[in-house]
Specification:
about 35% helix, binds thymidine-5'-triphosphate, ITPase-like_fam, about 25% strand, hydrolase, Maf-like, 7-stranded mixed β-sheet, about 210 residues, nucleotide metabolism, UTP diphosphatase activity, alpha/beta, elongated, Maf protein
């Protein structure tokens, strides 16, 4: 096994150990434009490239909200499959579910204020679906985290929306930003799942299956 080290001195060695093979054989591609997913993959000291998957994320009629993230993660993995022959593709999708309603990315500031007003003082769930694929082999799963918001004031919601512009975030918030620090009382489950990628579970599946 080749001994290759990154600047921190252990990344590649970890990959070699993790996959029991030389890293270039198991090239990893993250099929996502999300800076949060990229950050979490980097924090896990994985080496990867990004190829953005541009897909229509409209939910199929009648699909239950909790099934949507895996469906969309598979769609994202499919969309770049032809550019990733022989590589491990990781794709994900995150939705916020309030009762039976899916809260997607807000369309504008008024929609963001409306979403946060609905989330205020309540528990909702965040579901991230993940699809990991290498050619014909595929493992898909979803992870659910419960998030409890404190009662948010109108001023707090308006401050967040106008200063943080959460238009690229499902449910109009980011747990890793000011609103998460000040407004979230409790979570049950994986914090990183709320940020967009249950990275610990991704590592487990990579190690076990790929
Ligand atoms: C709830 C929540 C979501 N998010 C983000 C994660 C995702 O980037 C985004 C949900 O949108 P997604 O459609 O899952 O992902 P994306 O469009 O950003 O990227 P891609 O489809 O290319 O993979 O919301 C946070 O960063 N923090 C949070 O607390």
């Amino acid at each position: 096994m080749a001994e290759v080290h990154n600047a921190r001195g252990h990344c590649i060695a970890y990959c070699l150990q993790l996959y029991n093979t030389e890293y270039p054989v198991n090239k990893i591609i993250l099929a996502s434009q999300s800076p949060r997913r990229k950050q979490l993959m980097e924090m896990a000291e994985l080496q990867f490239e990004v190829i953005i998957a541009d897909v229509d994320e409209t939910p199929p009629v009648g699909m239950p909200g909790k099934e949507l993230p895996v469906y969309l993660a598979k769609k994202k993995a499919d969309a770049i499959a032809h550019k990733a022959v022989g590589a491990i593709v990781i794709a994900a999708d995150t939705v916020v579910l309030l009762d039976d309603d899916i809260l997607n990315k807000p369309t504008d500031a008024a929609n963001a204020v409306d979403m946060l007003s609905r989330l205020s003082g309540r528990m909702h769930t965040v579901v991230t679906g993940v699809c990991i694929r290498k050619d014909d082999k595929e493992q898909s799963f979803s992870i659910t985290t419960e998030v409890y918001f404190r009662k948010l004031s109108t001023a707090q919601i308006e401050h967040y929306v106008s200063n943080y512009k959460p238009f690229d975030k499902a449910g109009a918030y980011a747990i890793q930003e000011w609103i998460g620090v000040t407004g979230i009382e409790q979570i049950n489950g994986d914090y990183y799942n709320v940020m967009g990628l249950p990275i610990g579970s991704v590592l487990e599946v990579l190690e076990r299956e790929f």
